[in-house]
């Protein structure tokens, strides 16, 4: 366990290693195509790394274009000829419910896999992360038999009806920050809709996705419906986005890669797209806020999941009347935030996912120091092994500083001062992103004005990170077109077909 403690204006880290933690057995490391685990066509593998120490956990099959071709072929066959889209919806529901129960029996093991592979807190995995995956499956299982069209009385002597049909073969490309939730945020509504799919997990965190493929098989999801191809983005990922037989790509990741995905769709078969991209979300705290509550919200907004979350509240705008008090209290709390082994129940923040991410965050911290922002907490790596970083807070940050503009994707907060509601709205919106926003105030007029003026897909008032299966989230602006969760996510895997018949033998026919 590492504690950040104050030392003459700087934080310093102390490593207190209490005990070793048991790591889970790795059972699945091959591609899952057409109902079986298989080596990649090339026979190549890649290493997946433990971010607690930089050591290799295991090697995993490295899928490439040929493997994607096989997986898409299986998914295409399962969609065009297989039972899944043709099953009564209640039968799909029952298989999804069984899938959820199989996960429920293995919560601890699955949470441990993500802790090992992604540095995610085991406690969070057991209490919230994996249970929410079970909820996503159950929510969309319940919706599977409630997909309805509509009747139309047309102005000619015709009637029409609208069918909602599954889009077809989906390519799901997901990031590493929530390996399990991302998997089911994508897979659960697509299964309910009757689609078939190829999932490409992030190369940093392939392990739990392969386990979920195995459990889908055990639950009775027919072969070819759910395929998992592990591998790199520029090879396996790109092969999915350019594939002529993939009907839609549902992508979550960076805005930069989102742009490549859109280009590949445009130059291949104009496949449908859902893009969930980056963010630089503001948390706006007004003078009437309770300092204790507001600092807790601000800290959670940036430090939850070590800042590796698209919706991180990485810009905190505080009104001038409480700015100094807020700044002092926030720094005090950040310095007592426990950073440590993700398997340790006392840890509140584990290691960043990999060396690349760790070094990128440290570079941004150095940039913030050079830009002249005031460092009031953290600013260094934690310990000398693994990818741990101190909770870091910069104060007096200007809008045009790089740390205020770029998505850092780490535990680094930019604190800024504002005077009026109008100024807060203008500066909150001064970003290319628009994923989430937070508002902390007891004034209902302020809540109404700001929540309707902020250009973001999800606004939290006096809270942060409140999610639910039925609450859609997604972006405005360059955070990408697309919504995940909610009935909206089910709708995106469906397409509309209108069928028209005469009501009686019309003289025009
Ligand atoms: P990333 O864009 O580097 O990678 C995401 C996925 O895309 C990975 O599976 C990767 O292998 C794949 N990929 C990479 N290059 C590709 C290519 N050329 N073609 C096809 N696929 C490719 O993102 P990341 O570093 O894994 O995740 C962090 C990013 O994800 C952040 O920007 C974060 O904001 C974003 N994110 C967004 C949401 C959301 O819901 N909006 C949620 C989580 C993460």
List the SSEs and their pairings:
Layout lengths: L1 E6 L2 E6 L15 E3 L2 E3 L6 E6 L4 E7 L3 H16 L8 H16 L2 H12 L3 H23 L5 E4 L4 E9 L2 E5 L5 H15 L2 E5 L6 H13 L6 E3 L4 H9 L6 E5 L2 H13 L4 E5 L5 E4 L5 H13 L11 E5 L3 H13 L2 E2 L15 H17 L2 E4 L14 E4 L6 H4 L6 E7 L2 H8 L7 E5 L3 H10 L4 E4 L11 E2 L8 E2 L1 H7 L1 E9 L7
Parallel strand pairs: 9-10, 9-12, 10-11, 12-13, 14-15, 14-20, 15-19, 18-19, 20-21
Antiparallel strand pairs: 1-2, 1-16, 3-4, 5-6, 7-8, 8-24, 17-18, 22-23
Helix pairs in contact: 1-7, 2-4, 2-6, 3-4, 4-5, 9-10
The site of nicotinamide-adenine-dinucleotide has 30 residues, from helix 7 and helix 8.
Summarize the structure in words.
The chain has 509 residues and is α/β, with parallel strands linked by helices. The protein has 2 domains: 31-277, Aldehyde Dehydrogenase, Chain A, domain 1; 279-461, Aldehyde Dehydrogenase, Chain A, domain 2 (3-Layer(aba) Sandwich), CATH 3.40.309.10. Helices cover 37% and strands 23% of the residues. It has 15 helices and 24 strands. It has a 7-stranded mixed sheet with strand order 17-18-19-15-14-20-21, with helices on both faces. The protein has a 5-stranded parallel sheet with strand order 11-10-9-12-13, with helices on both faces. Strands 2-1-16 form a 3-stranded antiparallel sheet. Strand 3 (31-33) and strand 4 form a beta hairpin. Helix 2 (89-104) packs across helix 6 (207-219) and helix 9 crosses helix 10 (323-335). It binds nicotinamide-adenine-dinucleotide. Nicotinamide-adenine-dinucleotide binds next to helix 7 and helix 8.
